[in-house]
């Protein structure tokens, strides 16, 4: 996005600069550990996993903010931090900026985790139903809802389901079906969430609340739109995509909304209390 500029466009206050550097270092360390050490230890400990996952630990609500899945993911989040964070930090001060960034990032993760907890619990219940009373209709429902397209065994499971479809009363399919159900459950429970997008959305909404008439532009849609109109439309798009839950979409839209919501509440609270800058 393009946005409000400053007298020194490349200068950054300390917290914004430190977050950018630390996040970049973590990304490079993760890439290095995967490629040179063939280790996914950083992902397993720092990325945020589903609450029901055996890999989940509470500290991941914080650490996932500094992890990113790709160079483009890192670039766009850090670009947002640079564009909005430096301006807000110059207004708020360092401590307020750090508090805002971390709280919105954690708040985003909490909302996304709450949504996925409900979704995963439905999945677990359906898996338990199948194990307790195996049948083709339940297996078919489970596969249609929860099998991840592009997974390593996607073709094998779909072929298996088609074979069972032609002989739904043949219980010899059950042992293999149970293995597939368990594998699909494991794969869904252990999808990691990474990134600072929730905190960046918090910064975006804070900027819009403080500079409502400043014009913003998406990089891929260079049409200037005032912040007070841009942010609600963007939030609505996120809500639509989050509710729709498209199978091809791996973006945590409710995390974006969570960061925006927490950011909105914090800025409103600070305005009402008229806190001094730290």
Task: Summarize it.
67% of the residues lie in helices and 4% in strands. By secondary structure, it is mostly helical. A two-stranded antiparallel ribbon has the order 1-2.
Report the total helices.
11
Helix percentage: 55-70%
CATH class of the largest domain: Mainly Alpha
What distance lies between the first and last C-alpha atoms, to the nearest angstrom? 28 Å
Q: What's the number of domains?
A: 2
CATH superfamily descriptor of the largest domain? Rhomboid-like
Low-confidence spans: 1-7, 241-249
Q: Mind telling me the C-alpha Rg? A: 22 Å
Secondary structure category: mainly alpha
Helices and strands, in order, run as HHHHHHHHHEEHH
Strands side by side in the biggest sheet: 1-2
Number of strands: 2
Kindly report the CATH topology of the largest domain.
Answer: Rhomboid-like fold
- Strand percentage: under 5%
Question: What's the architecture of the largest domain in CATH terms?
Answer: Up-down Bundle
Describe this structure in words.
The chain is mainly alpha-helical and 278 residues long. The protein has 2 domains: 179 residues, Rhomboid-like (Rhomboid-like fold); 73 residues, no CATH class. Helices cover 67% and strands 4% of the residues. Strands 1-2 form a two-stranded antiparallel sheet. The radius of gyration is 22 Å and the shape is elongated. It starts with 13 loop residues before the first helix and ends in a 5-residue tail after the last helix. The N terminus is likely disordered.
